[in-house]
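Justification of resources, computational component.

The compute hours requested in this renewal are based largely on the per-chain cost of generating structure records like the one below. Each record pairs the submitted sequence with a full structure-token output. That output is archived, and it is also reused by downstream analysis tasks.
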Amino acid sequence: MNPVDDRKTLHEVMNQMKAIEASLYENFEHIAGIELLLSSDNNSTVKDAKISKNFSILKEKLEDTTDSVKVFMSMLKEEQRHN
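The structure output for this chain reads:
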């Protein structure tokens, strides 16, 4: 039996994914705060180029993860419609 064929399992997977989504959005709030801390108050330039570059990579990965979660949730919702 395919696990997603079981409605209860599918529902629980979706609940867990919703928790992941909520966590990701909360992380973006922290990302925004860090961006403010890394930029200079004088002219909005970065305080440390190396740290800012690595932080940008982290932010991109978080954005990619968020996109992947959205795709996965869409697939689960489609699966739910067929069950």
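The mean pLDDT is 89. The radius of gyration is 18 Å.
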